[in-house]
Specification:
alpha/beta, Rossmann fold, 2 domains, binds flavin mononucleotide
Length: 182
Amino acid sequence: MSQPRVLVVYHSVEGQTARIASRIVEVLAAQDLEVEAAEAASAPGPEGFAGVVAGGSIHAGQHSRQLTAYLTEHAEALNALPAALFQVSLTSADETPEKQAEAGQYVANLLAATGFDPDIVARFAGALAYTRYGFFKRKLMVKIAGRDSGATDTSRDHDYTDWEAVELFARDVAAYVLAGPD
Ligand SMILES: Cc1cc2nc3c(=O)[nH]c(=O)nc-3n(C[C@H](O)[C@H](O)[C@H](O)COP(=O)(O)O)c2cc1C
């Protein structure tokens, strides 16, 4: 019998969401699933897949146009499948209730804007990717990180992602997809 196919669709600006998507792909593939990963701008529709994982990062308080457009266009098909969302932001690196609420609001805004209604949602802390920023973005992020007591050493990147949480999320998704429709 052929393995159920899962689509991992994501948008990443500086690479952290792409790295998280890759880890999710590895975990899903190790759980008897066939996995296809695609960037939101060129991803296939969800038809024919047994489940979908969508992921995107927050910039200036918002998800990307690319992920938002994909989820809007395919909301109906996505909502008929086992579907999961992961969000990547620096807000989630701060565990205060205010910042957790802010990260939750980014998710709520995305779901309201697109009509996407995922079964599983995870919010991961992202990275300060200083070595991947240009001059102005680096200056801006140092200023923001300094204000929020984040790392300001620009000689290296700072990874705040909880990779164990990423793996747990992927295993949850695998179990949910393999359980099949209710
Ligand atoms: C220019 C810029 C703006 C950002 N704005 C926000 C923001 O408004 N809220 C937030 O929580 N994180 C913000 N971040 C942090 C990103 O979400 C974080 O760096 C994430 O790891 C980026 O993921 P990506 O590399 O997949 O795009 C911003 C990052 C950059 C570079």
